[in-house]
Specification:
The chain is 71% helix and 0% strand. It has helices spanning 2-14, 19-22, 26-45, 47-75, 86-113, 141-166, 174-187, 193-202, 209-220, 227-248, 256-278.
Length: 283
Amino acid sequence: RAVVEAVHRLDLILGNKAAYQEVFKPENISLRNKLRELCVKLMFLHPVDYGRKAEELLWRKVYYEVIQLIKTNKKAGISHIHSRSTLECAYRTHLVAGVGFYQHLLLYIQSHYQLELQCCIDWTHVTDPLIGCKKPVSASEKEMEWAQMACHRCLVYLGDLARYQNELAGVDTELLAERFYYQALSVAPQIGMPFNQLGTLAGSKYYNVEATYCYLRCIQSEVSFEGAYGNLKRLYDKSAKMYHQLKKCETRKLSPSKKRGKDIKRLLVSFMYLQSLLQPKSR
């Protein structure tokens, strides 16, 4: 009941026209912190029944919706959200706090359920050898399954937070985001979602070839992510436009270095266009 009430109050704040000015007020930060505590409590009290739902609510209401609000308003050119403004500083703090929280949660889940993820990730809970033998975990198979997947999702969220940080001036966290996504794939290789995020992170590198590869890997995964189909189609449409523009361009005399760059571009754009033609039209 307390979770539902906190979510309702946060939704009302986000519904305001000047929500971007309201979200970082102390009382609203306090409300998000309260919701975060309640969701964590719910996760560990009822992991099988409410664990996944609590995780989703926590990510969406405490972190993601605030991030989307700031990004949308920044794109719209709201004057308050500029580099070194109070609002941007609060946003940076919001992202850093999110990273700290999910790193702590990742360690806590591993510790609580005695998960052995040393072979998968480098952010592991290390037990003290002086303590001696571990106590057996009194958790069901379904609870252990939730804990493993919760670690996977924590790593995806950490990757997302690093990706959002990378969009800010003076921050270079692209490799960190990439590392978290690949570690999420190590924990649950069957889930394609991290490949979709890697595609988004790649952007238009190498004329969209890298992002296309990631989206295709996501779609081919045992558990694919629906959004990857739309992302792939968008890249194919873009490559078709680029291909037709290249064909229209005049072949004027270029220096050897410029000609080499042009040839590489033509090769990659043509390759992408060919990929789009070979794709099945079922979607």
